[in-house]
Design brief:
CATH superfamily of the largest domain: Jelly Rolls
Number of strands: 9
CATH topology of the largest domain: Jelly Rolls
Largest sheet: 6 strands, antiparallel
CATH architecture of the largest domain: Sandwich
Structural class: alpha+beta
Distance between the termini: 33 Å
Helix content: 10-25%
Mean pLDDT: 90
Length: about 180
């Protein structure tokens, strides 16, 4: 497969909203070099191309499989949110099919008396969220708090944590975690 490296680089740079000058500044090369590559007047070595792509950031494999005619999906209907929960806990993941996500965004629903399980959860990263409706008991480390609509949380996910709906009403939360846990 032949690829127009110059057109590809220009499309990727523009998709990320970067000028040639800004990309050059991020990568430590001249904006003249970026321009020459985009005009296909210079064929960059693999290491030079990788250096330029690190300023976006984009992996070489992603660069060569990127479809400049196609646009990444930005909007999602509720039917497109993949439920990765189980039982009485519904966890609808936004953008589940997007490659190289750097965060997980969830629309969470806990039925009456539902919880994330008897074991405390731990994983790398951070997470935060806002209770939209109902009440949730959240335990982080040794501290437990009941949160209601408008209340929020944010913590390092390496701290043992657990979510429990201790009421007879459904609880709804919008949350995010980084790096993605799902």
């Amino acid at each position: 497969m032949d690829i127009d490296v110059g057109a590809h680089l220009k499309a990727v740079r523009q998709m990320y909203g970067l000028s040639q000058r800004e990309l050059a500044k991020r990568t430590g090369v001249t904006n003249g070099l970026i321009s020459l590559i985009e005009q296909n007047r210079v064929s960059p070595s693999v290491s030079s191309l990788k250096k330029v792509l690190d300023g976006i950031p984009m992996a070489l494999a992603d660069f060569f499989t990127f479809d400049p005619a196609g646009k990444p999906q930005v909007f999602f209907t509720k039917e497109e949110l993949t439920d990765i929960g189980s039982g009485a806990v519904e966890l609808r993941l936004v953008g589940s099919r997007l490659a190289k996500r750097s965060m997980s965004v969830l629309h969470e629903r806990y039925r009456a008396h539902a919880d994330t399980g008897a074991d405390m959860l731990t994983h790398a990263g951070e997470e935060g969220g806002v209770v939209v409706r109902g009440r949730i008991e959240l335990t982080v480390g040794g501290e437990t708090r009941t949160l209601g609509p408008g209340d929020a949380y944010y913590f390092a996910s390496v701290m043992p944590h657990r979510f429990r709906n201790i009421t007879r009403e459904e609880c709804e939360i919008i949350s995010a975690s980084s790096p993605p846990t799902f």
